[in-house]
Amino acid sequence: MNAWTTNIIYSAASWFAQHNALSSAFLLILQVSLLITFSRVLVVACRNHPTAVHRIWFFTATLALVLIPMHTLRIGWQVSVPIARAALYDLVELPSTASSNLSETVTPASNPMVNFEHLTAPVAKDGQTPPRHLAFASAIDTLRSKVQPRAFTKSDGSFEFSGLPTGWIANAYGYHRERLLDGIVAIGTSDDVSLKTSTMEALTLPVLRSPASLVLEPGVKVGGVIVDELGMPVSGTMVSSYASGYKVRTDALGKFQYDESALYFKAMTRLDERCSIFATPPEKSDYLSANFRLAANEILCGKSLRLSLRKGVKVTGKVITEDGQPIANVRVKASGDWWPQEIERRDLHASTTCVTNSHGQYEILLLPGAKCDLLFATDESGYALPSNLELDRGKANQFNSPHVEVDVTDGKPVELQPFVVSKLAPLEVSVLRIDGRPAIGAVVRLHEQNQRTEDTFRREAETFTTDNFGNATIEIKRNPFSNALIEATLIDGTHGYFGLTSYANAKSGKAKIQLKNGTLIQGRVLMQGQPVANAQVGIHLRVPTSTQQGNVSVRGYATNEYDFIRTGTDGIYRTVLPKDKEFEVNVQMAGGWAHELLTPVRPLRPNSEGVLTGDFDLKLGVEGISGVVVDESDKPLEHMHVEIEATSGIDPRSFIGYNQSQFTTNTNGKFSLTNVPAGTYTITVPRPPRLNPSNPAQLIHQEPVRATARSGDRNLCIKIRR
């Protein structure tokens, strides 16, 4: 079998092995397709030959035609893959022996296990050096090596890994579950391994020849006592190890003990890092959770640990409505200076958040010396509180809802007065045209204001429509921002009207908006020339920017996402925007394509009627263009950017799925442009700037290299002359 056939078989086998679900689905689809095809042939044949003998003969032939190709494919797969694997690598066995440092052989009766951890390749076939220190799954897959990641020792303590390629270093980790013995060894799979040492888990290991001896060392006993600030034992505390995740509770005397791997502490000592032991007090206690960061050599010496927990300050309260009814599921969170500066954040863990129970009661544990605010949030609608998501994003301080100040600098427990939450009333909005008449059918929405640009941000804002009297009732589900805005838009033929007022101007739950001339934008989304209904079109606000580069001021534009709208059944979208702003649009989702679709952000251009338009004609291609980029000596060039040139009538970013292409060449100089519609294109490869021979401090811009290609071309060669 030649190298080309070997690589083809291995590549296909490797892909199907790594995508088991897809390969099974592929085989199932193939079998169903064959079954449907031959079933149709069987039906036609039975109609033309109605006798029972003919029907039985046709049924048997159809069944054979379905099953024989499938079994042939499976047998061919099983035969060809080992042949391809043998052609790629010389496979060997790796016999070794495991023993403990107590001069005893590790036997199956004590449940030993050796774990194949890493495979390092200092030497490889064909003179190539693969990446080093890769995990087993990515370094060498099971099709290529056939090695099992774990092995048990035999009665004489020996163990063996087979199917390993020659010229590699195998790092094997052995451990004993009950007695906590563990060890690690680096073994060369053949004599041509040039490296003398291998590094794993910050430990430098000598590379041994097979058969090697893996010595398991005993673990370290980690133990001590958990006490409070007065030296009294704290029972029921959960002590957990960061290294192994092992958990144990303290007894009545506050004592704990567990076994830990000695290799872990040796690695941490070599890295000069501290080991973490977490202590979580029992529920309903006044103690704070703690993270004790200890020196590794302090634990290795077997010293009994004495870890002290600190008591927190309990803050209790209640959340009720204006009529005194308790509110459940309200989240309470401490904000501000709740962490004294003299305490490191990773050492103590205070319960800075909690949720009210069915009686509206909450209890939060703060650090002594804290002085902070308590913020409240809920996902229940109808209350003047922010949502939990808004609270996590740090927007709660922008809300009108009051907060509660807490001061526990004296270290005494605090019981707060009930926190009263008001229910939200609907907002009545009246919209008037320019001439003062009621604006019937106007769209009204309540949304936040972008603090950074001081421009409105309409995305995900709920909309309401005015009635025959120009009135709309907004059902407020969340407490609005203090800088919230009420917006109204109206489309009348080819004219658009826009109005805006601040939520703070709404008095007694009523607001009035006077419409002004706005900017009407509209466009159409097509796919393969057909309109696309319910396509999502993103609207982006263009914000002028200015940056200073040395003594030169560079002006430009930045785009901020402003809103998105949907197309109708005719593929047309329409909306009204403020008159004095600049906007751009792009298609974010169309016809079920979302992540694969990334159209260009396009500036809006006015038509003959002054309406800003932005049309999109999306193309769905199934072909591709691939090839290689080389220099003058035909050497492959890596990290070169290849793309279809956007010329008049061609915008590759409107090709659905085109953004999934491999635009940058790999180590072999290869690129692949996918989902390209049928046609002839200009392929461009930018050339890096070169130094000016007369002025070495100056760079000279070079024109990109262009090549002509048709969709479906797979062997395009682009030569770059520097």
Using the 3D structure, state the CATH architecture of the largest domain. Answer: Sandwich
CATH-wise, what's the superfamily of the largest domain? Carboxypeptidase-like, regulatory domain
What's the total number of strands?
A: 54
How far is it from the N-terminal to the C-terminal residue, by CA? Answer: 40 Å
Residues in helices, as a percent range: 10-25%
CATH class call of the largest domain: Mainly Beta
Continuous helix count: 8
Write down the overall geometry: extended
Structural class by sheet pairing and helices: alpha+beta
Give the integer mean of the pLDDT values: 76
Strand coverage percent: 35-45%
Task: Report what the structure shows.
It is a single chain. By secondary structure, this protein is α+β, with helices and mostly antiparallel strands. The protein has 6 domains: 86 residues, no CATH class; 128 residues, Immunoglobulin-like; 89 residues, Immunoglobulin-like (Sandwich), CATH 2.60.40; 109 residues, Immunoglobulin-like; 188 residues, Carboxypeptidase-like, regulatory domain (Immunoglobulin-like); 97 residues, Carboxypeptidase-like, regulatory domain (Immunoglobulin-like). Helices cover 15% and strands 41% of the residues. It has 8 helices and 54 strands. Strands 1, 2, 3, 4, 5, 6, 7, 8, 9 and 10 form a 10-stranded mixed sheet that branches. A hairpin with a 4-residue loop joins strand 29 and strand 30. Helix 1 packs across helix 3 and helix 2 runs antiparallel to helix 3. The two termini are 40 Å apart.
